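Quick question, first post here. What does this chain look like in 3D?
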Amino acid sequence: MLEVIIGLYSLYLFLKLYISVMQIGYINEEKRKAPVLMSQEKYLIAGNYAVAKEKLGLVETFVDYLVFLWWVLFGFEWLSRLVGIDDSVMQAVVFLFGFIAIGFLVNLPFELYMKFKIDKNFGFNTTTPKMFMMDTLKSMALFLVFGGIVFALLAWIIATFESWWIWGFGVMFGLSLLINVLYPTLIAPIFNTFKPIEEGELRDEIVKLMEQAGLKSDGIFTMDASKRDTRLNAYFGGLGKSKRVVLFDTLVEKLNTKELLAVLAHELGHFSHGDIWKNISMMGVLLFMAFYLFGHLPETLFLEMGVMREAGVQIAILMLLLPLLSFIFTPLMSYVSRQNEYAADVYGGEIGGKTHLVSALLKLITENKAFPKSHPLVIFFYYSHPPILERLKALGYDATGVVIGELSELPKDGIFAFIDHNQ
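> Answer (accepted):
Ran it through. Tokens below.
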């Protein structure tokens, strides 16, 4: 069984590396052609930034593979002997803290290089080493408290219930919903300062848009994102009464009122279409399948790894192999997300005006050095938003092959972020 797991993970690794290599070659070729949506200089810079990130990702993927092999061949057995605690729940918690700590230390150099070398060189990162350290310490403190509680609860469930995977899924799915409720008001303020938007035209117009969409929120806030990064973003966070509108201060600085309203109208499109619940449903299906599969692993797998079928090991295997399962479903989830984005653009264009939405996109492009083209495999697997050229074309703006002054590309992150960092 261990050979099958290693074989599947190796295939997963090969596909990821192949997609990255194809992306690097594609961008290196395209960046030397006639620029699209930006000047030749900015087009080349955007291409170089995309290639630099992809090359770092290649190295990180390969290192992750070596770490995976170490865990399943030697690491789990070594850590299990090292912990050596009789109490099953405490043993699982300490084991999992050790598992997470080793993964954190392995990935820390890549995070530091990305943030303080690549992002810094390309003008994105504004985080100081002191701020990074404080953010890390805060995250560790939160994880030690809440992660310890979750690990202990899961370990107790595994030790108590024969069909532990059903109860484990229910607990984790419920916690994910709870985090969505608590994050905007309790967790996010630990890292950023949120200020209610000042009374005026922008606030009044946002309130009108929200009332039109039937959205009741906790408030409209600006966030001091510029202290860490120069990129632009806006989002609706939370569930239930904790929902709030958040505008990055970088976004407010660069976009005029009508463009901001168009961006928010797009986000309201997601709310109006129930996209958040669609995404939560897809996440729930994936989580259910993960708990089912990893809850039925054969005893021989644990024997081959030299460990007992302990709670800590079972949870660690789930965490280790979850990216493999997620990768299988990524194309479907990305496709659904892209269709949701097209629909949200239609809503945003109708409510906020197509002209203002396109104008906002083009300004966002200017401020973010993300290459406007990608290899078809990258789009198929990873693009949660439509390619920017297709997105603009759907809004009636065909910029293919046209140089439009000082234009760059759209960012990419977050399920409901207007800006998609996957592009």
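The CA atoms of residues 34 and 151 lie 53 Å apart.
The first strand starts at residue 194 and ends at 196.
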